[in-house]
């Protein structure tokens, strides 16, 4: 990536008296900001990192301020979480490749939930019949499947960056319903039960 702009914010001590026998020069240190341009996708990235005279390259930790890190959806199986993160990295490079990877995540969900059917649409319908997803979400998932087909087959056409937000929303809706929401409910119930047990224990001690 090309460095488009740089900004350095020094936090060096302002107290400098060279005639003071107890004066020790403070090390030069501060925060670097770098705006980078990706030559492949033409998107920008903003980095921030702290650097000082006493630090070597291995000590420097870079923080990405923009674009913001993808929301890590709690409760996803590890293999689906990895596939989702990979897809999000590809989304800024090519919409068609992103659609294909999102379609693969759909297939992984069906396999994880042991859906049956001759094709992806029927497997999604099977999940709805089992109560894994609502009937309305089958239509959402099928729309995602159709967009995946556009991305995978050049003869059907080509997806553009305008379709990426649609792919984002459709995929996240399915992942949140199947995995994230049940996980959050379970965690909330665990915290509520612990709170009840604590209150009951306090009541017994009185």
Could you walk me through the main structural features you see in this protein, from its secondary elements to its overall organization?
The chain has 206 residues and is of the alpha+beta class. It folds into two domains: 2-66, no CATH class; 78-191, Four Helix Bundle (Hemerythrin (Met), subunit A), CATH 1.20.120. Helix content is 49%, strand content 16%. It contains five helices and four strands; from the N terminus they run E-E-E-E-H-H-H-H-H. The protein has helices at 78-90, 95-112, 120-129, 135-152, 164-205; strands at residues 2-10, 29-37, 44-52, 62-66. The chain has a four-stranded antiparallel beta sheet, with no helix packed on it. Strand 2 (29-37) and strand 3 form a beta hairpin. Helix 2 (95-112) crosses helix 4 (135-152), helix 2 (95-112) crosses helix 5 (164-205) and helix 3 (120-129) runs antiparallel to helix 4. The longest helix is centred in the last third of the chain and has 42 residues, at 164-205. It is flat.
Which word captures the global form?
flat
What strand order characterises the main sheet?
A: 1-2-3-4
Structural class label: alpha+beta
- The CATH topology of the largest domain is given as Four Helix Bundle (Hemerythrin (Met), subunit A)
Order of helices and strands: EEEEHHHHH
